[in-house]
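INFO batch 0412 | record 1 of 1 | parsing
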Amino acid sequence: MSLNSKKNTSSISLTSPRVIVAFALFCAALLSSFAFAALSNKTSGYWVAAHPISIGSLITSEDLILVNATLAENGGLYLTQDLNPIGSTSISAIGTGEFIALNSITEESTAFDSEQVPINIAASDIPADIEMGELISLYWVPEPLDRTSLSTPELLLSGVFLRSIDRKNSNFGNGLAITISVDNSQVKKLLSGTSSGRLVIVGSHG
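INFO prediction complete | emitting tokens
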């Protein structure tokens, strides 16, 4: 066998089918990796809550912030920037910075009739670490009949949304002003608890 024939048999032509197929597979793998990286880094605009939103609240532009995020397979569960939630009503409590879920708002505002009720309580009757937007329970503590008797607390309302809290003036002996969001059918019950005795706030989540 001649030297030239040995070189021809040991070398592989660039136009051989095996080389072409291998090169095509390499290019396909490379393009797939680029496409996957591009899709994983793709962000979309989503609406998030600028502050706590209580159940039954009418959504306004002040309640929302538009952010860019990558939610992958969960993206379809939340409001994107091309959907306008302004004018809708919340059907669940939404915390600050939470994405607005599609099932957390509705356009049927007549299904909800909540009231924002301001009340004044003693600073010692509310947890020091409780914050706006939390769910709370209200207990009514009646005045004892005399100094030796004990009063029995009664659960007045539970699962109430704490809409606002003002601790600034609590050091001046004026009590502490809070605003809670309740169904209008519970307003009379709440106000009756303020006519005598005192109200004690308890965090619903411990």
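INFO post-check: The CA atoms of residues 122 and 175 lie 5 Å apart.
INFO record closed
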